[in-house]
Amino acid sequence: MTIGIGLLGLGTVGAGVAEILATPEGRHPLVAELELRRVAVRDLDRPRPVQLAEHLLCTSPEAVVDDPAVEIVVEVMGGLEPARSLILRAIAAGKPVVTANKAVIARHGEEIAAAAAARGVYVLLEAAVGGGIPIIEPLKQSLGANRIQRVSGIINGTTNYILSRMAAEGADYGAVLADAQRLGYAEADPAADVQGGDAADKIAILTGLAYGGTVPRGAIPTEGIDQLDGRDVTYADQLGFVVKLLAVAQRIDRANGDSPAGEAIQWLDVRVHPTLVPRSHPLAGVNGVNNAILVEGEPVGQVMFFGPGAGAGPTASAVVADILNIAGIRQACGAGEGAALDPLLAAGSWRQCRLVDGAQTTHRNYVRLRTSDQAGVIGHIGTCFGEAGVSIQSIVQFEAGSEAAEIVVITHEVLEANFRRALAAIEALPEVQGVAACLRTL
Ligand code: NAP
Ligand code: HSE
Q1: Strands 72-75 and 3-8
Q2: Mean pLDDT of 142-151
C-alpha cells in the first residue's frame, strides 16, 4: 500500500528528496511505496532540477498539510515561520513530520515535541544535523546505554568547506563562500553558517539528545569564522594545527550540583567557536563539506561519525531515511491512531540540563598579541600569565619588524576566569598594543 508524502519546499533538499522518491530502483523496497502527492513552493515558475507533474505543485503549504492524501509531511522549506506553525498544524492533524530544519527545532523543539507526544505522532529530524551522517538516531537509540561525556565536532559544512579551501589554496573567503552557496551547502542567509548560528542550532539539538534535557539556544556562547584572520590560520599551520569551527557539548559533574529544590541537574559546557586542532587529531583531517562528530561515552569510549554534512543528495538521504522509519512503523502497526510512541524514536526530555558559567570552564587557548619589538616584552607577558595562574605551553614571536612584533602564546588547559585576568593585565602593559586574536585550542 502506498504512503502519501507532502513536501513543503522543493529547493536544494526538497529536490533531492523528490529525486530519490522518483527513482526507487535499487533502493529499499519501501521507497517504492512512497508517493509524492503534493509539493509547496513559493514560485511556481522557478526552474527545478526535478521534473514533477504540474498538478503536484502549489503555493500553499497549508493546503499540502491539510490534503487528506498526504499522510507524512516533510518540511524542507527552512526558516522559523511559517515552518513552526506548519509542523504544529501537521501534528494537530495527526500526521507525522520529517524535518531538516535545525533552526526551528533548536528554538521550538520542546513545544513541537510536547505537541507530538500529546497527539501520538513522530517528528523525526535526522537531516537537521550532519547532512547525510546518521547521528540523531544513533544518539537516540544505538548509544542510549551510555553516559555521554562529550559530543564535539565539525557540524557546519559551509564553514568547513571555506576553512579547508583557505588552508589548502589560500583561497579568498568571499569567493569560497559564493561557491558554497552555489553548491547548495549554505543556508538561505549564509550569516547563519559563517557566524556560527547554524552550528549552535545543531549542537543545541545534539545536546538535548545526548543529555536528555534542553539548554536555551540563545545562551550558547557562539563565535563564527567571519572574524577569523587568515594570519591565524597561517600561524596555526606553522605551529602544527589546523583551524576548524568546532561545536562542543560536555558534561560537567559537580558536587552539590542539584537545584535548591533537590532536583538532579546535569551541568553542561556547550559552545561553538573556531578552534586550533592538532594536526594529529582525527578531526583535523575532516575537510571540504564533510562533517565529523566525535561522541565520547561510558562505556562505549570514542565513536566518530564522518561524512558529507550538506548538499542535496546527502541531506535527502537522511530525510528519506526518516520517512522510511515512519513508513515502516505504519506498515507494521497501521496508521497508529492512539498507539503508544516508541520512547526511543520519539526522544522526549528526561532530565534538567543547565549551562555552566563560562568563567568556570577550562580550556587551552591560542592568543596573538601585537607588541612593540623590545627587550623584556616576552618576560612581562609571561609574568602576567604566571601571576594569574595560567600555565604557558609555548610562546613564539612572529614577524618581528623594526618596531612591531606579533607574539603568539598557547596555554595549557586553564581556568577561563584566570585566562581573562591574565589578558586584562597583558593589555595594560605599555609595550602591548592589543590582543589581536584569541582562539581555543584542542
Ligand atoms: P532552499 O534551497 O532555500 O529551499 C527552500 C524551499 O522552500 C524552496 O523550494 C522554496 O520555494 C520553499 N519555500 C520557502 N518558503 C516557502 C513558503 N512560505 N511557502 C512555500 N514554499 C516555500 O533551502 P534548502 O537548502 O533546501 O534547505 C531547506 C531546509 O533544510 C532548511 O531548514 C535547511 O536549514 C535545511 N538543511 C539544508 C541542508 C543543505 O545542505 N542545503 C542540509 C541540511 C539541512 P521556491 O523554490 O519557490 O523559492
Ligand atoms: N548550511 C548547512 C551547512 C547545511 O553548511 O552545514 C547543512 O545543515
Answers
A1: parallel
A2: 97
Distance 303 CA to ligand 2 centre (A): 22
Cβ count near 263 (within 10 Å): 9
Task: Give the model confidence (pLDDT) of 75-114 as tens digits.
Answer: 999 999 999 999 999 999 999 999 999 999 999 999 999 9
Upstream peptide bond of 82 is cis (omega within 30 degrees of 0): yes
Q: Prior bond to 299 cis, omega within 30?
A: yes
Q: Whose CA is nearest to atom 25 of ligand 1?
A: 12
CATH number for the domain harbouring residue 196: 3.30.360.10
Nearest-angstrom CA–CA distance, 187 and 197: 10
Protein residue with its CA nearest to atom 2 in ligand 1: 11
Query: What's the gap in Å between 383 CA and the centre of ligand 1?
Result: 53
Which atom of ligand 1 is nearest to 41's Cα? 21
Is residue 244 among the annotated active site residues?
Answer: no
CA end-to-end span of the chain, whole Å? 52
Query: Of the residues 95, 102, 202, 244, which is catalytic?
Result: 202
pLDDT at 192: 97
- Whether residues 210 and 258 share a domain: the answer is yes
In terms of pLDDT, which residue wins out, 376 or 93? 93
Total H helices, total E strands in the chain: 14, 17
- Model-level pTM greater than 0.90? yes
- Model confidence at 1, pLDDT cuts 50, 70, 90, reads confident
In single-letter form, the type of residue at position 75 comes to E
Q: How many CB atoms lie within 10 A of CB 69?
A: 12
The residue out of 243, 276, 308 marking a domain boundary is 308
Q: Ligand 1: which atom is nearest the Cα of residue 78?
A: 32
Q: How many domains does the chain have?
A: 3
Residue 160 CA, closest ligand 2 atom number: 5
Verify that 191 and 160 share a domain, yes or no. Answer: yes
Confidence of residue 373 (pLDDT cuts 50, 70, 90): confident
